[in-house]
Write a structure and sequence with these properties.
The protein is α+β, with helices and mostly antiparallel strands and about 210 residues long. It is about 40% helix and about 30% strand. It has one domain. The protein has a five-stranded antiparallel β-sheet with strand order 2-3-4-5-6. Strands 1-8-7 form a three-stranded antiparallel β-sheet. Strand 5 and strand 6 form a beta hairpin. Helix 3 crosses helix 4. It is elongated, with a radius of gyration of 24 Å.
């Protein structure tokens, strides 16, 4: 009676080993892309340009407040991405100060000392920020349409990336919607503002 020869495990399932190897390579590459720093969506501003844009932002917002105080209606201002970025540049230092005093612990380890970077194209907003995940700095980039409804700002994502890794919007939309609801009080428009939207590469803020 012929003896049965035991086939080595690695020869019995070469496809399984191959698939496992491919999966490991793909996952490793995905992690590499996720941790890789992407190209900035906008070049940094000089200190002088930032000061000018920050002042321009404050002036335009003051115009809306003045129109409201004088009983006017329907006034609007057009803000550029550089003006918004200049205004954001002041936020991280304030956030860190609040965090250290215990006033805003939820910001700790999210923005750090870096301000979000924004740009506008057509009717879309693109935002990019750095977050600490497991001690590693991860860059998140999101595209979408900014709008308003019932006195609150709204955001409809159209693209989502972690590092250089594209993530299907369908995978993150529910989580993003939940986060927006959790932060709903921060999405409330000022009392004198009726609408916000992006059009022709500018943020339009319309007064009531």
């Amino acid at each position: 009676m012929p003896l049965k020869t035991e086939v080595p495990q690695e020869k019995k399932f070469p496809i399984r080993r191959l698939v496992s190897s491919v999966v490991l390579v793909v996952l490793s590459f995905a992690v590499y892309l996720a941790l890789r720093k992407p190209e900035p969506i906008r070049p940094p501003q000089t200190k002088e340009a930032r000061a000018v844009n920050a002042q321009s932002f404050e002036t335009k917002i003051s115009q809306l407040e003045t129109a409201q105080a004088q009983g006017q209606s329907g006034a609007e201002v057009h803000l550029t991405a550089d003006e918004i970025r200049a205004a954001f540049a002041q936020a991280p230092a304030e956030a860190v100060a609040q965090t250290s005093s215990g006033a805003a612990p939820e910001l700790s380890g999210v923005l750090g000392t870096e301000a979000p970077v924004v740009s506008f194209a057509g009717d879309e907003l693109k935002g990019q920020y750095a977050a600490e995940v497991g001690g590693k700095k991860v860059y998140v980039t999101v595209n979408g349409r900014l709008g308003s409804k019932d006195g609150y700002a709204t955001f409809e994502p159209t693209e989502f990336k972690i590092g250089d890794l594209n993530i299907p919007v369908s995978l993150v939309k529910d989580a993003l919607d939940r986060k927006m609801m959790e932060q709903r009080d921060k999405m409330k428009l000022p009392d004198f503002v009726s609408e916000v939207k992006i059009e022709n590469g500018e943020l339009i803020v319309r007064q009531k």
